[in-house]
Amino acid sequence: xxxxxxxxxxxxxxxxxxxxxxxxxxxxxxxxxxxxxxxxxxxxxxxxxxxxxxxxxxxxxxxxxxxxxxxxxxxxxxxxxxxxxxxxxxxxxxxxxxxxxxxxxxxxxxxxxxxxxxxxxxxxxxxxxxxxxxxxxxxxxxxxxxxxxxxxxxxxxxxxxxxxxxxxxxxxxxxxxxxxxxxxxxxxxxxxxxxxxxxxxxxxxxx
Length: 207
Fold this sequence. Notes:
The chain is built from seven helices and seven strands, in the order βαβααβαβββαβαα. With 207 residues, the protein is an alpha/beta fold. The chain has one domain: Flavodoxin domain (Rossmann fold). Strand 4 and strand 5 form a beta hairpin. The longest helix has 19 residues, at 68-86.
């Protein structure tokens, strides 16, 4: 059984291009693995708290020394990290906002980027600890950012690939629903994106 977690970050909810593209990816996974278990984390309905001084203190204090306040401060992060580590497949749905990721998604990333839990430093340098995952990025943009003259303005894909790779997740496939604000493209943007989805036959553990 595959455990899938779907992270959504659009304020447009169920009408979002990125959310619907993520769902289409999951549907195609389910077609191959009908017993898949799906967890959902809506970062708009249940936003990750922005990192505060209290969070930092809790993160860097050994758990056996946590006060009640520290336990509460670290609770969102603990749940998010546990969800991530228990998953086999991660689907992140995100719209391009001002040339980068939504603030809500960045905050979630801050909560899962935990020294000693999802990455560590050794004499050889940083090592990602979140291994054996398959990641799908379901992205949307008003213009065409995957190629052409607007590609250099896309800070979302490089950042997501960079931070996820830093945590050990390097098997990443990107799908775009783009041109969603361009009159002659927006009507078919989602359809074209869904047609491009290819799910590997073997979604086993990635080394």
